[in-house]
Specification:
The protein contains 18 helices and 14 strands. The protein has about 425 residues and is an alpha/beta fold. The chain has two domains: about 190 residues, 3-Layer(aba) Sandwich (Rossmann fold), CATH 3.40.50; about 240 residues, Rossmann fold (3-Layer(aba) Sandwich). The N and C termini lie far apart (about 60 Å). It binds uridine-5'-diphosphate-xylopyranose.
């Protein structure tokens, strides 16, 4: 099938490459010339494991091209909208400027019976509004809302073998003509048994908001338990193991630590609350305000613990932050708790050096006032305290014995509860975890 993918960021670039891998002829379109030039040269404009190999592989087939020219969408019968919906400046709601602009630019190039597929995370009601606009311009075209659930760091696998497909169509029914078209697009993963659910537009939009809210709630729940554990001397990691053995609860997303960040969970729960407010259903989601507050409290708590580790004052203390990305296997620093903590420590008078295997250039663009060092050994030189804030494997594997001679004071705060506390203590380190004695 001939497919256009509009918006080539974390979502769209991966989606375009994966659709070509599934055998389709794909054109990726974006207004950012730098991004398009990189993708056209089979270079990923951001770090995502296995994406670059996939780009090289599919571009050799000639099935994947990139352009900044929206008229290239004209030859396709299916058009995926994959642009970002960031948080509005100074407000909780989502900024739909990119969705609206992409949609407006695409409309003149639609042909009869084309299918436009929204993948961006949008406030409920957006699909109905866009479908109305489309109906005025090209009444025989269809709009499907098909939310994306990919995780950064696993984006290629999550796109090629997702947990489920959700199709939101105007009548919410299997017999909608766009259902068969999307089934063709995804025929390979569907053939391997991936479940798919056909529903209406608002339900499909809400599925995404609800899924991310649930994940955020799960993380804040265990972080709230960590606060209680700290007050009682209990161990939150053992607590999570024990409650996670209950099938109904499950151990995933129960890792207590510095909390969630990234380009999705924080802004999605805020946009959901804002939208519920507009709809007069704000009471239903007031718990998300608490989820957000628990999450932000983690960042303040790290600063307090770092002060304790440094003997009561941060002034002039050399602190090394291990990890800048919002999670491992990503170079994304959007709302990264690690960086927000590093900036706060710097503001409070410590000298902060940040290291990360992939995210340093993105971090330096956002927080130019921090010091950055690629090499871990150099970054930890003469440190008064180490803070492990993003759990890259190489930081999990650090040898406490080898590090001792490099630092000024062997003190470490394990912001993700991933180190073996007994091993670090045996090597002479002062070890602090979260919600652990
Ligand atoms: C998330 C959703 O998982 C995905 O389905 C959706 O499409 C987009 O948003 P992503 O932002 O890539 O994906 O990251 P995710 O793996 O969900 O992690 C989000 C944040 O939560 C990270 O900062 C991570 O470190 C943190 N986290 C995750 C925890 O603090 N504890 C956990 O137990 C799990």
């Amino acid at each position: 099938m001939r497919i256009s993918v509009i918006g080539c960021g974390y979502l769209g670039a991966v989606h375009a490459a994966c659709m070509a891998k599934l055998g389709h002829e794909v054109v990726g379109i974006d207004v950012d010339e730098r991004k398009i030039a990189a993708l056209a040269a089979a270079k990923a404009p951001f770090y995502e494991p296995s994406l670059e190999d996939l780009l090289v592989e599919v571009q050799k087939t000639g099935r994947l091209t990139f352009t900044t020219d929206m008229s290239a969408a004209a030859g396709s019968s299916v058009h995926f909208i994959c642009v970002g919906t960031p948080q509005k400046k100074g407000e909780n709601g989502a900024d739909l400027a990119f969705v609206d602009a992409a949609f407006a630019a695409l409309l003149p190039h639609l042909s009869e019976d084309d299918v436009v597929v929204g993948k961006s995370t949008v406030p409920v009601g957006t699909a109905a509004r866009l479908a109305q606009l489309m109906n005025e311009r090209q009444p025989s075209a269809h709009l499907v809302w098909n939310p994306e659930f990919l995780r950064e760091g696993h984006a290629v696998a999550d796109t090629l073998q997702p947990d489920r497909f959700v199709y939101g169509v105007s009548n919410g029914s299997e017999d909608h003509p766009a259902v068969a078209v999307l089934d063709d697009v995804y025929s390979q993963p569907l053939a391997t048994g991936t479940p798919r659910l056909v529903t209406d537009h608002p339900t499909a939009e809400l599925v995404k908001a609800a899924a991310n809210s649930f994940l955020a709630t799960k993380i804040s729940f265990i972080n709230a338990m960590a606060e209680v554990c700290e007050a009682t001397g209990a161990d939150v990691t053992q607590l999570a193991d024990a409650i996670g053995m209950d099938d109904r609860i499950g151990r995933k997303f129960l890792h207590a630590g510095i909390g969630f960040g990234g380009g999705c969970l924080p802004k999605d729960i805020r946009a959901f609350m804002a939208r519920a407010g507009e709809l007069g259903a704000d009471q239903a989601l007031t718990f998300l305000r608490e989820v957000d507050a628990i999450n932000m409290r983690r960042r303040t708590r790290v600063v307090e613990l770092a002060r304790e580790l440094c003997g009561g004052s941060l002034l002039g203390k050399r602190i090394t932050v291990l990890g800048a990305a919002f999670k491992p296997e990503s170079d994304d620093v959007r709302d990264s708790p690690a960086l927000s903590i590093a900036a706060q420590l710097q503001l409070q008078g410590s000298v902060v050096t940040v290291t990360d295997p992939k995210a340093l250039s993105n971090a330096a663009r956002r927080f130019p006032e921090l010091h950055y060092q690629e090499d871990t050994d150099k970054a930890v030189q003469k440190a008064d305290a180490l803070l492990l804030l993003t759990e890259w494997q190489e930081y999990r594997d650090l040898d406490p014995y080898a590090l001792t001679s490099l630092v000024t004071s062997p003190s470490i705060l394990d912001g993700r509860n991933v180190l073996d506390a007994a091993k670090w203590r045996a090597a002479g380190w002062t070890y602090r975890g979260f919600g652990r004695p």
